[in-house]
Protein: Thioesterase domain-containing protein
Amino acid sequence: MNGSAAGADVCVCFPAAGGGGATLALLRDTAARRGMTVLALSNAESVADVDSGRWKDRAVQEVRQAVAHMSGRRVVLAGHSMGGLSAICLHAALGTRMSVPTGVLVINTPCPDPSGRIPTMSHLPDREIAQVLAHDGFPQELLDDEDMLSEIAHGLRRDAVVADRLAKVIGSADHLDQLHVLSGRDDRFIPPERCAAWRHRVAEEFHLTITPGGHALDATRTAAVERAFDGLLAATPQREVTA
Structure:
């Protein structure tokens, strides 16, 4: 957790499957430039971690501690792809356990269909995963190394199984009050149509921004991320903090 002044907003960031990446860094940097306390959390490690409630309890506790430590006035939950599913799941839990206004921004996160399904890598073979990664600019020399590709694909399939479970949980949950979504127009695996479908799961305000770019957004898309972030902040009131 980075350091900020007391009374700062708290931004909780979740990564895509595989962890880390340029998009997560972009979210963290955007929040930090706005003087927010940035809390980077992990996605659930397994389906059992989701089903038992352990992951959600840990995440809620960490957010509560950050808000209490900083006298936080509001919370922004932000996530990339699978991390967006984590942010949406956590939003429901925070709503029942905390009184701090909370908003959600997701980037290239697919909306579950009526059966709770999303585009998934959980059953894709190594070579199909390599094709998806190559389109998004993943270094070809790593994809050409069979051992390296096998390791990468195994990790992504493992995370995708957990993402599938998060999607099922969201599919059977109540609608969100509001949601801000940023989608890369050139994302072949999670196209804008799957991001736009969130409008059916939002009861009040829904904001969708489609920007040039693929599944992972880098620093060239900073302006688009900042506009989406600022739109969320404008729509999320701050709690009054007494001295």
Strands lie at 10-14, 37-40, 75-80, 102-107, 179-184, 206-211. The chain is about 45% helix and 15% strand.
